[in-house]
Amino acid sequence: MEEGFASNSVSATDLIDAATSESKVRCGSSSPLGATMQPSGVNFSVFSKNATLMELLLFDSVDDTAPARVIPLDPRAHRTYHYWHVFVPGTKPGQIYGYKAHGPFDLERGLDLERGLRFDSKKVLITLTDMPSPFRARTSAQARTPRQR
């Protein structure tokens, strides 16, 4: 661990090993970003240059305080350049999801907006591009803007 960095990360190996009993996910594609429905499931893709591990969290209800399933993304299989991605078979439209990003949390530098090293793996991240229905995987037709339809 680099000096000046505190880590609140869980071991990637521990998380990946814990997920082996879950149904098999595939590496997915880095493009397009966001959650994209495909006939047999959903491809999830998110950008993070400095994350050391990403987790995809799947919730059963918007009222849930804990995810029903956590899918750790192994950087060897689920990362292309700065894009983290995974394909989850069997996922349906309306799936509620979020991410947890693990990485450096530089307390010594305070709010360092230039470096942006403020990872807090206790926080669930959501994508605002899915508004007005946040956290939900959409079909490709729903994800298109009016200009693209």
Task: Describe the 3D structure.
This protein is mainly β and 149 residues long. The protein has one domain (12-138): Immunoglobulin-like. It is built from three helices and seven strands; from the N terminus they run H-E-E-E-E-H-E-E-E-H. The protein has helices spanning 12-18, 75-78, 140-143, and strands at 34-38, 41-47, 53-59, 69-73, 79-80, 83-89, 96-102. The strands form two sheets. A four-stranded antiparallel β-sheet has the order 1-2-6-5. Strands 4-3-7 form a three-stranded antiparallel β-sheet. The longest helix has 7 residues, at 12-18. The termini are far apart. 26% of the residues are buried. Mean pLDDT is 75; it is low at 1-22 and 130-135.
A few lines on this structure:
The protein has helices at residues 12-18, 75-78, 140-143; strands at residues 34-38, 41-47, 53-59, 69-73, 79-80, 83-89, 96-102. The protein is mainly beta. The protein is globular.
Q: Give the CATH class.
A: Mainly Beta
Estimate the strand proportion: 25-35%
Topology, number of strands: 7
CATH level-4 homologous superfamily:
Immunoglobulins
Along the chain, the helix and strand elements come as HEEEEHEEEH
Q: Could you report the average pLDDT, rounded to the nearest whole number?
A: 75
Q: What's the end-to-end separation, in Å?
A: 48 Å
**What's the structural domain tally?**
1
**Radius of gyration, rounded?**
16 Å
Number of helices, where a helix is a run of at least 4 consecutive DSSP H or I residues: 3
Main beta sheet: 4 strands, antiparallel
Broad structural category: mainly beta
Spans where pLDDT lies below 50 across 5 or more residues: 1-22, 130-135
- By CATH, the topology is Immunoglobulin-like
Main sheet: strand order? 1-2-6-5
Helix content: 10-25%
CATH A-level architecture: Sandwich
- Indicate the overall shape: globular
